[in-house]
Amino acid sequence: MTNNWSDWQQYNDWHPDLDSFKETLDGGQAFCWEATDENTYQGIVANIPYCVRWEKPNKISWATHSSLFDEADALFGKYIGTENTYQRYYNVLPWRSDPHLEKCMARFPTLRILNQPSGETLLGFLCSAAKQIVQIKEMLSLIRERFGSEIVGNQKTLPSWDQLYAIDETALRECKFGFRAKNIKKTADLLHATPEILENLESQDYEIAKTTLSTLPGVGEKIADCVLLLGYQKLEAFPVDTWILKAMQRRYQLDDWNSKQVSHFGRRHFGSYAGLAQQFIFSWERKASRK
DNA sequence: TTCCAGGAAGTCG
DNA sequence: CGACTTCATGGA
Fold first, then answer.
1. Most buried among A67, A118, A178, A271, using CB within 10 Å?
2. pLDDT per residue over A17-43, tens digit each?
3. Coil, strand or helix: which one is A10?
4. What's the whole-model pTM score?
C-alpha cells in the first residue's frame, strides 16, 4: 500500500463471518484474489485494483487506487451485493425442509454469489475444464501479466476478448492453458466475427441465454451455468461439476444419477436461487473433505 | 505410479 | 441416445 491508495472504505451491505468472507472471494467463484494476510485479499476486478479486509466483528472494508475511486465505489457494491437482496435469497431457499442445505448454510451463513464482469467470467471458466482451482488462478495470472493492459503501477487487467483474439494458440499454451488453448482461440475468433452473441444476455431468460452461450467452442452445460450464475447473475443456474455430482449423489441419495439429471434435480428442488444453494453445497463439501 | 482436477467434444455401438 | 476417448498439466 502506497500513498497512491485511497483510505479504507467500510462496506455496510455485507457483514460476513470470516469463513464466509474467505469462501466467497477465494472459494472457486473468482480466480483473481490473493491473500496478503489472514484477513486481507488483493485483486483486480475488471480494470479496478482492490484490497479487501475483514475485521471483527464481521465488518469489511476496501481500498483502491485514489485515481479510480469513483468507479471502484460503484463497482464494489454491484460485485458484492446488498443485505436486502441476500436476506430475500436466504429466506426463499428451501432449508426449512432440507436438512442438508440447512447444515451447509449454517457452516457459511453469509456466503454470497459474486456478480463478476461477464467477459472475464467466461475466460476463467473456459480455463477451468479439468483443472484445480489453484492452477486456474495460475493460468489467469500468467495471461494477465503477459497480455493484460496496464492500469496503474505494474497492475494489469485480464485481456479482453478483443485482446485475446490477437493472441495465438502457442502463446496461450505457454500460459499453461493446455488443450483449453484451442477452445479459447476459437471462441475469441467467433466473438470477433459476431460480437453480438454476448449482447443482451443479461436480459434474456436463463434457458435462452444458456443455449446462446453453448454455441461457443468449449462451453458446455457446466461452464455455461457458471458463466450465467457468476457473470450474468442468473441465480437459477445450477452448475454441476465433479464436486456437486458427488455431493448430490451422496447427500441426496441420487446414487446413479448423471450430471444432466442432477442439474435438472437441482433447479427443480432448490428453485429460483438454485445457484446459491449450489454454492453452499459446493463449499461445504470441499471444506468437509479438506480435514 | 496412478488417479484426478469447478469438462467438452468427438467417436462408436 | 449412452458409454468411452482424447485433450495438457500438475497436485495429491
1. A118
2. 999 999 999 999 999 999 999 999 999
3. strand
4. 0.97
Q: Would the Cβ of A15 be found within 7 angstroms of any atom in strand C?
A: no
User: Which CATH architecture best describes the domain A242-290?
Assistant: Orthogonal Bundle (1.10)
Cell, residue A217: 467452442
| CB of A135 nearer than 7 A to strand C | yes
C-alpha distances in angstroms, A133 versus A32, A139, A177, A270? 11, 10, 13, 25
Q: What is the CATH number of domain A9-81?
A: 3.30.310
The reply to whether A234 Cβ lies less than 7 angstroms from strand B is: no
Helices (H) and strands (E) in chain A, counts: 14, 5
- Bridge-based pairing of strands A34-37 and A59-64 is unpaired
The whole-angstrom separation of Cα A71 and Cα A252 is: 44
Q: What is the CATH number of domain A118-231?
A: 1.10.340.30
What integer best gives the mean pLDDT of chain A? 97
Give the CA-to-C1' distance from A17 to B8 in angstroms: 37
